[in-house]
From TrEMBL:
Residues 1-26 are annotated as: Disordered. This is Winged helix-turn-helix transcriptional regulator. GO terms for molecular function: DNA-binding transcription factor activity. It comes from Propioniciclava coleopterorum. Gene3D superfamilies: Winged helix-like DNA-binding domain superfamily/Winged helix DNA-binding domain. It comes from the Bacteria.
Amino acid sequence: MDAEAAVTHPDDTGARPGAPGDPTPPREALIGGIVGQLQGLSLVADQIGAAFASRQSLAKSDFRALTAIHRAERDGHPLTGGQLAHELHLTPAAVSYLVDRLAESGHVWRDPDPHDRRRVRLRIGEKGLEVATAFFGPLRHIHEDALAAYSTDDLALCVRFLADVNASLTDFGRNLPE
């Protein structure tokens, strides 16, 4: 018996739950497994975001704001300060201070709204784009590697699943008890 086999648990095949050929667990066990994985995902994403923000000399709320501004701009719908306050669950005054800080450092800039000159849209600045690229570029490669074995149909199901989970979490957040 080689040394590697001696330290491996006999039931540890290295297979992931749900791997091809595995028997399908009961629905309740699958849902419990999904919930557990989502909780783990949330925790690790929060830890990674906080660590990266710290390495960029950003407060966690600044990094969250940059992420929201970058995502909205990427999706073609730049945020206003009020929308950012709503998304981050911060007061308008807190967001104003946060945006002032990010604008002064070159992470974001204010763009007058072409439809309402009283409003400004928040845009990612050069420094903010550098931060976003440094974070999301490598993260995208890691995700691509993790998803490489999935078929197009599997990926479409994953997108639908994540959209449904995000929608349910958004609804849950709107209806949190006081």
